[in-house]
Amino acid sequence: MQMKIIRFYEDVGVMKVRVDTLDDLWSVQRIIFPNDIVKSESERKFKPSEGDEGELKKVVITLEVEKTELDKDATRLRIMGKILDGRPIEFVKLKSYHTLNIAPGDILEIQKSVWKDYIVGVVKNAVSDSKKPRLGLIVADDEKALPAYLLGYGVEFKNEIYSRTSKRQTQKEFAEYQKKYFENILAMAANMNVDTIIIAGPGFTKEDIKKHGEESGITKKMGKTLIFESVSYAERSGIYELIRGEKVAKILDRERIRMEFSLMEEFLTNLSTGRSKYGVDNVSAAVENMEASMILVNDSVLGDQKIQQLLTKAEENGLRIEVFNSIDEVGTQLNGFKDIASVQN
Questions:
Q1: What is the pLDDT of residues 60-103, one digit of tens each?
Q2: Fewer CB atoms < 10 Å away: N or C end of the chain?
Q3: Which CATH superfamily is domain 4-131 in?
Q4: Can you list the alpha helix ranges (DSSP code H) found in the chain?
């Protein structure tokens, strides 16, 4: 299954979408703002009388959004606000507060007074990303291995595993621990829910893993594509180095996060020449004075009125608008530049 735009009634500002993954929930949260109208199936506790404990009834709720929360652990997007309408009406109390719990497989309608192109673009990119196979990444040295997924919304790191080898071990013990370590890494790769995994690291460990996998037959049984590359560290920085690397450009070329790194580098390079600006006031001036060709903005500020006015002007001027994930490394960098920046090519 994949995220789908079921209908987009642009004339009345209503988009109907189906979500199927945590990525989809995250993408939808990015574009739902306070005062938007959201409609979806839900449950309400109905009490026939005052002393009754009540029972849960299935209802269709339309509410005016006040805030949203994404619960990754429960895989739920909570949309909170006041009820504007509901069916069956006897189970719904208008103007009372309610929370829509949106989960994978759910369908919801989002109504806005105006759907800006850059907001529609966020949804369309999410639909496109949901069609792409995800990529598994493992960086390893002789002491530890760090796995991660490259997802539509950024990088998700998993728990490290350790070799537990020691210089105090006998040669036989060392070899046994090392063999077990390699097998654990290959088992970790086999269990990753992806077709392609890049195993990278400094030194010869990655080559030793490759050799052990081939000689033992583990790699063949795995039925996955394993690619071995070099990076400087078996740390998070090594994962990001891998993403930026030209050697895996063909694999990562269609992954949004790699493009975000490239755009951020372009912004930083042009800072010294004055062709890059950051902060609402400076970027607004750049847009007004035709000194910008591209806007970079974090998804965390898309609901801000000043930001919306700025992006509307940028859109009218035909500027490229790129929305970053605020919790990923590139988004964190942009946060240090007040969450919005412009670049003049």
A1: 999 999 999 999 888 899 999 999 999 999 888 999 999 999 99
A2: C
A3: Pelota, domain A (2.30.30.870)
A4: 22-31, 117-131, 171-191, 205-216, 218-222, 236-244, 249-252, 256-271, 280-288, 305-316, 329-335
